[in-house]
């Protein structure tokens, strides 16, 4: 069977001759094409030919004319000038608005300053503060009721920069601070009793988040801190007055002996210095004995109490004899010496007390013995006014204790002085029997533990007893410890006494 296609038929003839004929025809066609670059010499060209007629200038150079370019440049400049003018106008408008705001602000500030100047014309006279008495406090409360805003502004100024706690003394003087507290407890003047003053102080301290409870806490803290500062200053002042003369002052006898003046310096008020100054001036002006003269130390060592007639100074003889006797005499027990120093002498015998007792002792013994002798509350003997109060002591039962508590609440200062007189010989631990009878002390304790009668429940008695012993080193915790130990030791002594 014969297949389809030309694969097995006759092969196709090559068309070389046809290709040659087609290439010849193409060559003939290209020869008939007119080349535009070929010049036809038969065409004549005139010499006068205008370029504009052939092609415009813009098409020749490919850009705008100079006139159009200049106009476009001017249009661009006018647009930029317009934009700049718009920006400048906007900025000027903003500046005008800001200037108007500042002018309005200055007007308000000036109005406020004028108001402050008007208020400053009614400034409170400085003589009104600090308040010095209860009468002035009542008058000030009435004045604040009539013009509270004026005093509120004044308090704001007075309490700057450290607040009410540091500047309470600008409102009340030291005496009023001691006599006052916030609530009027313990028979004190209460700040809450003067409603107008209390309200003005609260408004002057008021700020965001500052409640009345915070104000009450601030005022209480201010009174307590100021009282402690006042007590400390008083104590230092009285201790300075009771201290002996400084060491530098003792150098003046040398100058006195150099001039030969043996009289006392009446301008100096220390009697101890007067006597010793005269004695030292005599010793300085008198010529010293020979080297082998009997000294007080050798005299006391040999026990010879007779005077050395070869020594001509009578002052030296008497002091030598007295010192030899004191050296040879055995000293009493230490506790007896403390008891003796605790009891102050009469003021008329101050010279002998200060010179004779401390001739051989150190200056610290003199300070310790005279530490309680203060000008304000020193009483050499119990006055008749205090003797009337002693009829209630020692307290024998609970009913008498309650009666004494009422008496102390009405007149605490006198009882504080009485308690100081009782405690001059020692602390409460040693003098518990001066306050309470044995039968009552056995049934008492400080805190009332063990179904005992609590001494702390009698507030006025408790405070008066504490104030009679209060000092810089003696705190309230020390006082409570002393009272507890006093009751315990007294009970123990009673039990031992019953066994004997």
Key terms for this structure?
single chain, 500 residues, mainly alpha, two-stranded parallel sheet, two-stranded parallel ribbon, 22 helices, elongated
Mean pLDDT: 70
The main sheet orders its strands as: 1-2
Order of helices and strands: HHHHHHHEEHHHHHHHHHHHHHEEHH
Unreliable sequence segments: 48-55, 57-61, 260-274, 300-318, 333-380
Taken from the alpha-carbon principal axes, the silhouette is elongated
Strand content: under 5%
- The level of helicity is 55-70%
Ends distance? 165 Å
- Counting DSSP E segments of at least 2 residues, the number of strands comes to 4
Biased composition (Basic residues): 1-13
Region (Disordered): 1-29, 234-347
Domain DUF4806: 124-203, 390-467
Biased composition (Acidic residues): 258-269, 301-312
Any overview of this molecule?
The structure is a single chain. The chain is mainly α and 500 residues long. Among the domains are: 126-242, no CATH class; 384-499, no CATH class. It is 57% helix and 2% strand. The chain has helices spanning 16-31, 51-54, 57-61, 66-120, 134-146, 148-158, 174-179, 195-205, 212-242, 252-259, 271-285, 296-302, 314-328, 334-342, 350-356, 363-369, 384-387, 398-410, 412-422, 438-442, 459-467, 476-499; strands at 180-181, 189-190, 444-445, 453-454. The strands form 2 sheets. Strands 1-2 form a two-stranded parallel ribbon. Residues 124-203, 390-467 form the DUF4806 domain. Residues 258-269, 301-312 have a biased composition (Acidic residues). Residues 1-29, 234-347 are annotated as: Disordered. Residues 1-13 have a biased composition (Basic residues).
């Amino acid at each position: 069977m014969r297949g389809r296609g030309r694969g097995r038929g006759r092969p196709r003839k090559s068309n070389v001759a046809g290709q040659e004929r087609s290439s010849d025809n193409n060559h003939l066609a290209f020869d008939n094409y007119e080349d535009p670059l070929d010049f036809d010499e038969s065409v004549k060209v005139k010499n006068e030919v205008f370029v504009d007629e052939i092609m415009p200038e813009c098409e020749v150079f490919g850009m705008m004319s100079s006139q159009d370019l200049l106009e476009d440049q001017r249009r661009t400049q006018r647009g930029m000038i317009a934009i700049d003018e718009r920006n400048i106008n906007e900025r000027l408008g903003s500046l005008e608005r800001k200037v108007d705001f500042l002018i309005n602000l200055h007007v308000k500030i000036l109005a406020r300053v004028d108001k402050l100047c008007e208020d400053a014309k009614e400034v409170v006279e400085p003589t009104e503060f600090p308040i010095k008495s209860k009468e002035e406090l009542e008058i000030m409360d009435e004045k604040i009721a009539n013009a509270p805003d004026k005093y509120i502004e004044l308090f704001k100024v007075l309490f700057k920069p450290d607040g009410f706690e540091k500047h309470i003394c600008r409102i009340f003087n030291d005496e009023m601070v001691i006599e006052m507290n916030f609530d009027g407890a313990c028979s004190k003047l209460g700040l809450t009793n003067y409603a107008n003053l209390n309200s003005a102080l609260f408004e002057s301290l008021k700020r965001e988040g500052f409640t009345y409870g915070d104000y009450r806490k601030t005022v209480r803290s201010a009174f307590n801190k100021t009282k402690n500062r006042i007590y400390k200053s008083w104590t230092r002042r009285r201790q300075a007055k009771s201290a002996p003369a400084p060491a530098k002052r003792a150098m003046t006898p040398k100058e006195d002996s150099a001039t030969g003046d043996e009289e006392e310096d009446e301008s100096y008020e220390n009697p101890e210095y007067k006597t010793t100054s005269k004695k030292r001036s005599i010793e300085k002006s008198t010529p010293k004995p020979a080297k082998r003269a009997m000294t007080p130390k050798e005299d006391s060592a040999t026990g010879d109490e007779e005077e050395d007639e070869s020594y001509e100074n009578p002052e030296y003889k008497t002091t030598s004899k007295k010192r030899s006797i004191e050296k040879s005499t055995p000293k009493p027990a230490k506790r007896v010496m403390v008891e003796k120093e605790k009891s102050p002498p009469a003021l008329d015998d101050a010279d002998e007390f200060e010179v004779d007792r401390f001739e051989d002792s150190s200056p610290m013994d003199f300070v310790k013995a005279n530490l309680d002798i203060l000008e304000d509350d020193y009483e050499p003997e119990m006055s008749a006014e205090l003797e009337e109060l002693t009829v209630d002591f020692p307290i024998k039962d609970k009913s008498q204790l309650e009666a004494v508590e009422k008496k102390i609440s009405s007149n605490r200062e006198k009882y504080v002085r009485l308690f100081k007189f009782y405690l001059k010989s020692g602390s409460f631990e040693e003098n518990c029997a001066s306050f309470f009878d044995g039968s009552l002390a056995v049934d008492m304790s400080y805190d009332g533990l063990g179904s005992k009668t609590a001494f702390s429940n009698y507030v006025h008695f408790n405070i008066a007893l504490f104030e009679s012993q209060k000092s810089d080193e003696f705190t309230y915790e020390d006082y409570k410890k002393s009272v507890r130990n006093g009751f315990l030791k007294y009970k123990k002594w009673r039990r031992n006494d019953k066994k004997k």
